[in-house]
Write a structure and sequence with these properties.
single chain; about 290 residues; alpha/beta; Rossmann fold; seven-stranded mixed beta sheet; globular
Amino acid sequence: MAIFLTKDSKVIVQGMTGATGMKHTKLMLADGTNVVGGVNPRKAGTSVDFDGTEVPVFGTVAEAIEKTGADVTVIFVPEKFTKSAVVEAIDAEIPLAVVITEGIAVHDSASFWAHAIAKGNKTRIIGPNCPGLITPGQSNVGIIPGDITQAGRIGLVSKSGTLTYQMMYELRDIGFSSAVGIGGDPIIGTTHIDCLKAFQDDPDTELIVMIGEIGGDAEERAAAFIKENVTKPVVGYVAGFTAPEGKTMGHAGAIVSGSSGTAQAKKEALEAAGVKVGKTPSETARLARAALAS
């Protein structure tokens, strides 16, 4: 089992013919992802050879869906064009849009998220500014290294790309049902809560690891959801225990104001919901091992 992404997912790449899109399409194909097309209006009707695999290029997302049955798009479009790319995906009613691009204006993210809601939430958005998601051994959409883990029993949801990779590597001998990098911008599509619900409902996920960071109240809201709705063990980590107040740290959403959004406040909220929280990624991995062993 998996959440959001399986071996049967048919993936298109918006921005496939750019340098970043080409690089990661090749890596996704090597991981077994069923990439069925790219989208570039200026190169419609052509194809790209990825080590013997010919991937056609379509003019629009709607055409790609019509010709291939695609149900996932991954977006590697430069930030100034990302809003229109996401809106096009939403209008085509593709079920899942994974927005890798970073540096997107918050107003643009708010705009395409509102557009998705207005269209009836038919398209799940993951990101922006995220590493994507992977179901090891089945499909990999985004920029997560495919060789750092294996299929297993842990579900992972994380705001941080690099911490996603570290946790997957530290627990590689146990493996993951799915790992989802939701991104750390102030406005994102899929949240911790969305992933927690999906992992709770997934029979092959036995334990959930949740990685958060300073800023906002997403982790506190997730803690309230866990307390009321999640029966599986959850282990957490919150990045930023040593972050200075009032300074943005890495992600645009990672900023502390007064006592709001601190790592300590989030840790306390999660622990009050029964979540064991590590002070470092390695300690969090040890807590996950102990939870599974018990």
